Amino acid sequence: MIIDSHCHIFTERIVSNTTPKAAMLRELKLNTSGALERLRPESLQDSLERNGIEKCMLLPTASPEKVVTENDKFIKITSRFSRLFTLATLHPIMPGLVNEIQRMFDSGITGFKFSSFSQRFDLLSPESCAMLTQISRIGNSRSIRPIVVFDTFMRADIYYGAKSEHLSTPSKLSKVARRYQGIDLICAHMGGLLGDFNEIRDALNPLDNLYLDTSNATHTLAEHQFVELSQIHGASHVLFGTDWPWFLHEQELTKIVSLMGKAGFTAIEQAKVLGENARRLFGL
Fold this sequence. Notes:
The protein is of the alpha/beta class. The chain has helices at 12-18, 22-28, 35-38, 41-50, 67-80, 97-106, 116-119, 126-141, 156-159, 170-179, 197-203, 217-220, 223-233, 249-262, 267-282, and strands at residues 3-7, 55-58, 84-86, 88-89, 111-114, 147-150, 184-187, 210-213, 238-239. The strands form 2 sheets. Strands 4-5-6-7-8-9 form a 6-stranded parallel beta sheet. A 3-stranded parallel beta sheet has the order 1-2-3. Helix 6 links the parallel strand 4 (88-89) and strand 5. Helix 6 (97-106) packs parallel to helix 8. The N and C termini lie close together (11 Å). The mean pLDDT is 97.
């Protein structure tokens, strides 16, 4: 089973706002050609079918006042497409935080996606810590082991004017994983998109509840860096992800399989990265 653990169905506005940032596009190697067409859920479902990918996980985020609407939107999308699943999102200062955590767990969604730089919050603020505590507490009360996914765009302060304290740095992510061992933490983009490799390697130490996803990382890390991070964390703690609609399944699968071979992963270990880890974490 192959599962894409990192997909997006953005608004057209996000794609339109991204396309003019030429320097960022070059650094991230984003494939904007045809991206607007790929925003359609039908396009994503079709790509999954054509490339033998059983399921994908959508990762919404929203400002405090739009969280509930955004969650409902993605629940509706995934109800119409058999291969599309979704996490929910939250915000530390949203109204009705506890109710929304409960509502998502009760609806069968067991995890939440955050983009702290665009949602404008500090991962280690008192409000964020209270939110993560509630996620862990409510999950435990329902015999659910929650998942949280954090974006890790380390140059968002340059390209989007984000505050530096709103970046989800490797050291902050490591602290969260250690504090909240009842939550499984997935660090997108192998832990630090366009970040300093030494910081990613040294700050994000392997932990039982810490995972990396591969989205965009094959384009922004040197091959030996990607291989080293994969070996440090091990095949049981790496998840295949594409960052759709910016990258295509066929090309990303080819890249990841090649790099897993160079990391020395066996066929069984490669199967974990490509889907088994995600199936277990997301309960698919």
